[in-house]
Amino acid sequence: MERGADPERRPTIEYANFVIMLLVALGIGIVAVLASALLGPKKGSRTKLMAYESGNDPERGGVGTGQRFPVHFYLVAMLFIIFDIETAFFYPLAVAYQKLIPFAFFEAITFVLLLLVGYVYVLKKKVLEWA
Amino acid sequence: MPDLIATLLISLLKAVLVVLGLLTTFAYMTLIERRLLGRMQLRPGPNRVGPMGLLQPAADAIKSIFKEDLTVTLADKLVYTLAPIIAIGMALTAFGGIPAGPAGSLFGENPWVYNLDTGILALLALTSMGVYGIFLGGWASGSKYPMLGALRSSAQMISYELGMGLSILGLLMIVGTTSFHGLVAWQAQNGVMLLFQSLGFALFLISSFAEVNRTPFDLPEAEQEIVAGYLTEYSAIKWALFQMAEYVNMITASAVMATLFFGGWKGPQVLNALIPGISDWPLIWLILKIAFFLFLFIWVRATLPRLRYDQLMRFGWKLLLPLALANTVMTAAFLAFRGAGGLWFLGVLSLAGLLALLIMSDRVRVLWNQPTVRPPEDRDLVRAGGD
């Protein structure tokens, strides 16, 4: 449809344009950080560079801070990966859907039902219950 | 070959223009937001720096560049510096694909930077990359509150990204293309997508509020709960870059909603009868629609309280996700077995779905608000053996 609007369009050029946009956008960030590093004052002291812990001296620390976190976050991330793959499978189906009717409909329903089984299992296992 | 170089140079110019335009819009968005919030709370808002406070954004920008850029001793220096750059880079890039007018309407050039056939997929990919900026920023800060905020925000953002991706499937089924241009062209012919996918639009709107971390879903930076979340250890320009990314994401989300559901840069076709060609006036319609959504973002911020974290996750996984799937299946069934009725019938179905969403979210809210800690009288019951 959009090819008719712009007959001379070459797909590779568009990807080059995308890369240009990305580089310019990242460049703005880098320039801003550099400008601030050059222009801002540099007067750090030990207390000033301490991590914020509501006024306490941070006991443990460092990257990741070495503490334990609820497994819920891990489970949510796993579920996201599964359902995102589902979405990834759905996009081609959705785009080509009208050409594949009615076969695609039953195909999609079967796929959704299979995933719903997993979803209901997750619900029953109370993975999505917080607190 | 010189032809190619010229094309790329023009793209570069357009990219720089888009970036500068977005940054200016961001700066004035902060002012407009503060002034509007002020109006909504019966106070004037910033009005001292320049006429009507118009120089306030410039003052803020200069201040944040000249502030001391602190890096906490325990932080991972490289990742700590990279995170805001990633966040702003992805946010700015996402906007480049939005078509702002018919081909060649920008002084003979196309009013967009890139036009991928997979426009929507590229957009979703870029929003996913935005999560990296926030999570890496929180992780590299070497402190506990940012880490907590980053975990919460990444879980929130990926959950709602799912709802976002699924809620537009119905739309894709109807149109059959993932490029923004195809969507705009389809809507110019058949009427705005909002009519046929009102449920999908509502789900997309809610997800985009969560995606850009705005109230009522702004848990990542819930200042009253965990200081400022992933932003706690950031100062000066790096903090400003994260803010910038949030506002730019907001602008992009508004533009995407305008393009997907409100006809993009095309105005209402009805007006063509009054003034011929008014619906094709470049830029105006898109800017109007974006402004409407931005106002909505601010309005909601001044109106709704923040959700608790478990409420937020329950809403995303237990209501948004099944309803988005139901919307997809409904649209698919309609397209497969459409009877005599045209697309308007789908519109009615979708409105019914929207109504169901409203009623259900009200019903489920009662369940959600049940506290997990039992009140004392309940505990007494348990001790007595009855539950």
UniProtKB/TrEMBL annotation, chain A:
It is an enzyme of class 7 (translocase). It is a multi-pass membrane protein. NDH-1 shuttles electrons from NADH, via FMN and iron-sulfur (Fe-S) centers, to quinones in the respiratory chain. Its EC number is 7.1.1.-. It comes from Deinococcus knuensis. It is found in: Cell membrane; Membrane. This is NADH-quinone oxidoreductase subunit. PANTHER family: NADH-QUINONE OXIDOREDUCTASE SUBUNIT A (PTHR11058:SF22), NADH-UBIQUINONE OXIDOREDUCTASE CHAIN 3 (PTHR11058). Keywords: Cell membrane, Membrane, NAD, Quinone, Translocase, Transmembrane, Transmembrane helix, Transport. It catalyses: a quinone + NADH + 5 H(+)(in) = a quinol + NAD(+) + 4 H(+)(out).
UniProtKB/TrEMBL annotation, chain B:
It is a multi-pass membrane protein. Its EC number is 7.1.1.-. Its main location: membrane. It is an enzyme of class 7 (translocase). HAMAP family: NDH1_NuoH. The keyword GTP-binding does not apply. It catalyses: a quinone + NADH + 5 H(+)(in) = a quinol + NAD(+) + 4 H(+)(out). This is NADH-quinone oxidoreductase subunit H. The gene is nuoH. Keywords: Cell membrane, Membrane, NAD, Quinone, Translocase, Transmembrane, Transmembrane helix, Ubiquinone. It is found in: Cell membrane; Membrane. Belongs to the complex I subunit 1 family. NDH-1 shuttles electrons from NADH, via FMN and iron-sulfur (Fe-S) centers, to quinones in the respiratory chain. The immediate electron acceptor for the enzyme in this species is believed to be ubiquinone. Couples the redox reaction to proton translocation (for every two electrons transferred, four hydrogen ions are translocated across the cytoplasmic membrane), and thus conserves the redox energy in a proton gradient. This subunit may bind ubiquinone. The chain crosses the membrane at residues 6-31, 78-100, 120-141, 162-186, 192-210, 247-263, 283-304, 316-337, 343-360. PROSITE patterns: COMPLEX1_ND1_1, COMPLEX1_ND1_2. Pfam families: NADHdh. NDH-1 is composed of 15 different subunits. Subunits NuoA, H, J, K, L, M, N constitute the membrane sector of the complex.
